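Lab notebook, design round three. We kept the backbone fixed and only want residue identities now. Task for the bench partner: fill in a sequence for the structure below.
Input structure tokens:
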């Protein structure tokens, strides 16, 4: 019995010794790998090394991105008097955030709420329609072969290279001829076209939807519509989320198009409405309401932040789609 216990203890000590040796070998290999990576300029992502320079650069970039949000958050807590008499990054004498929010939604008979609903309407119809068209068009261009496909690709690339602001005046002249200016259609119809979204879904459909899977569905008797909605669409969810975020942000922040298309304040989106409030002080007898403009701007960006946070996991899951050959 004693010999068995001694043998067990010996084997346990040898096992621990072997494990320590293995850990030391792994540490030596990782150290050698980091040295090789440092010399060659490459690095194993599964065994990263810390870089002080990259950390500092990323910190500066994070501060640069978060600075406007911090400015809005701080100044939204001030009254108009504190806004003009205190330091921009310092809090005022009175914490007036809740009063400012209440005033924003009641000022001028609650016009801010109307602007907010207008923007939601433009985003749901315009950005939603643009995403749907981009999904269907990108899938068709990726999985079907037809005459003129290369010409369509050239047109899409050309449309991406043309800035949207360059098309605003021609669009205004066209809509004026059709009698659609100063109507919601002047905002919705241009928003339905997203060349970048179409190109994005084209490339994503090419990589994310296996042709063999579509052929198997067709062999089983599924129609093209059923194949698209039940087979391809679930595989395209990361690309759909990405395309949706781009179109939502573009429509939500659209400024120049409604500036030239809309004259009636009842159809203004938030961007034009807040700009009108900002310029109010420069008009004859106008009242300065910078505290309301800042608070309204803070309220305006909250839906975008929430959308990014909620859709982040779907977005990240498709960033590397097609990057690994199987």
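Proposed sequence:
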């Amino acid at each position: 019995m004693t010999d068995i216990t001694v043998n067990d203890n010996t084997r346990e000590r040898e096992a621990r010794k072997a494990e320590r040796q293995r850990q030391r070998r792994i540490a030596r290999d990782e150290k050698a790998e980091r040295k090789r990576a440092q010399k060659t300029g490459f690095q194993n992502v599964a065994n990263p090394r810390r870089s002080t320079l990259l950390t500092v650069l990323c910190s500066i970039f994070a501060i640069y991105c978060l600075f406007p949000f911090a400015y809005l958050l701080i100044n939204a807590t001030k009254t108009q008097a504190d806004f003009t008499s205190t330091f921009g990054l310092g809090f005022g004498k009175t914490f007036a955030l809740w009063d400012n929010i209440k005033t924003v939604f009641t000022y001028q008979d609650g016009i801010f709420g109307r602007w907010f609903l207008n923007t939601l309407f433009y985003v749901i119809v315009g950005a939603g329609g643009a995403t749907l068209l981009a999904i269907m068009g990108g899938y068709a261009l990726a999985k079907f072969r037809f005459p003129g496909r290369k010409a369509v690709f050239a047109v899409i690339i050309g449309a991406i290279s043309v800035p949207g602001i360059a098309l605003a005046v021609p669009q205004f002249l066209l809509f004026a001829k059709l009698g659609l200016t100063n109507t919601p259609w002047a905002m919705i119809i241009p928003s339905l076209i997203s060349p970048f979204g179409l190109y994005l879904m084209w490339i994503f459909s090419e990589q994310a939807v296996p042709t063999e899977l579509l052929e198997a569905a067709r062999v089983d008797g599924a129609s093209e519509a059923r194949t698209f909605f039940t087979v391809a669409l679930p595989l395209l969810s990361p690309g759909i989320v990405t395309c949706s975020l781009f179109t939502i942000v573009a429509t939500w922040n659209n400024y120049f198009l409604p500036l030239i298309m809309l004259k009636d304040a009842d159809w203004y989106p938030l961007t034009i409405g807040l700009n009108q409030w900002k310029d109010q002080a420069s008009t004859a007898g106008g009242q300065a309401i910078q505290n309301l403009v800042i608070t309204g701007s803070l309220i305006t960006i909250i839906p975008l932040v929430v959308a990014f946070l909620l859709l982040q996991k779907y977005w990240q899951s498709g960033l590397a789609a097609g990057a690994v050959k199987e």
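Keep this in mind before ordering anything: The CA atoms of residues 140 and 202 lie 8 Å apart.
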